[in-house]
Amino acid sequence: MSKSGTITLEFDDNSHLPMLYGEHNANLARIEQRCRVSFTVRGNILVINGGKADRERARQIIASLHDRTDRGADIVPDDVDAAIRMVDFFDKPQKEKIGERKDIAGSGAIIRIRKAVISPRSVNQARYITALRDSKMTFGLGPAGTGKTFLAVAMAVSCLLEGRVDRIVLTRPAVEAGEKLGFLPGDMREKVDPYLRPLYDALEKMMSAEQTERRLENGDIEVAPLAFMRGRTLSNAFVILDEAQNTSPMQMKMFLTRFGENCRMVVCGDPSQVDLPDGTPSGLFHAMTILAAVEGISIIRFSADDVVRHPLVEKIVRAYDKAEKT
């Protein structure tokens, strides 16, 4: 219901409103600041005050967040920012976005892990989740903080828990990020764990540390350097190659040809952070050159607009992009 200068929303179920509004109405305050509107709360009624376009923008944001609570998901400040980002993108008058908007609003762009629901926080994240769901091989390219590895691991865990694959294989090249670490003591796992720590971190956000360790021990989850993939055929597995920009063309070819029956493969990389020795070509660049037109492969490219870490990370990425262009 609406009248001049306002839009009035009435909610049938009050139980979701504390999560929707946020503690001390913090979520509403965040939307007010970003959308140049004001809210008036009266029990299960929310009145939106402001200019016509701003009111409608705020209404769509509230509707998106309310749909999220209906699916049983929590709302944190980053989710509010994500809803604003989504609405702003689809507010642009492009007819080809209509069908995609419906898919993003539906279950196609959601990852469910037991009681957790992981929703996209940018349009490219939604495209990426859809590609992870529908494609046998997906490339996620873009700067740090865009959720490439996190979402891939989330989809892998979802597939494992639902029985769609028998195991998860996580790998990355053991390349030093501009540093010489020298001799590393300990057994093989202790030597390579520092390189693979980001993958463990992503896993432990989906499952408890105890469950992760148990599945690592029984072989349901394997975390290993890329060199350990040589000579293998990976079947009934969800396989993720992280930091793919640090592979050589031969390493990339070796990895991609490990593809077996009922395999899903994801390649994540940041083309702007290559740590290979000078003169060594990146296997990720090479793969993009020759695989772009291959049917069955999805390629999703992220930008600074998709950074979902601290806002400062987005500013850093943009500053470096600007410096590289000039």
Write structural notes for this entry.
This protein is an alpha/beta fold. It is 44% helix and 17% strand. The chain is built from twelve helices and twelve strands. It has a six-stranded parallel sheet. A four-stranded antiparallel sheet has the order 1-2-4-3. Helix 2 packs parallel to helix 4. About 6% of the residues have low confidence.
List keywords for this structure.
alpha/beta, 6-stranded parallel β-sheet, 4-stranded antiparallel β-sheet, 12 helices, 44% helix, globular
Write a brief structural summary.
The chain is α/β, with parallel strands linked by helices.
Compile the SSE list and pairings.
Elements: E1 2-3, E2 6-10, H1 17-21, H2 26-35, E3 38-42, E4 45-49, H3 52-70, H4 77-90, H5 97-105, E5 111-113, E6 116-118, H6 123-134, E7 137-141, H7 148-161, E8 167-172, H8 188-206, H9 209-218, E9 221-225, E10 237-241, H10 249-256, E11 263-269, H11 283-291, E12 297-301, H12 311-325
Parallel strand pairs: 7-11, 7-12, 8-9, 8-10, 10-11
Antiparallel strand pairs: 1-2, 2-4, 3-4, 5-6
Helix pairs in contact: 2-4, 3-4, 6-7, 7-8, 10-11
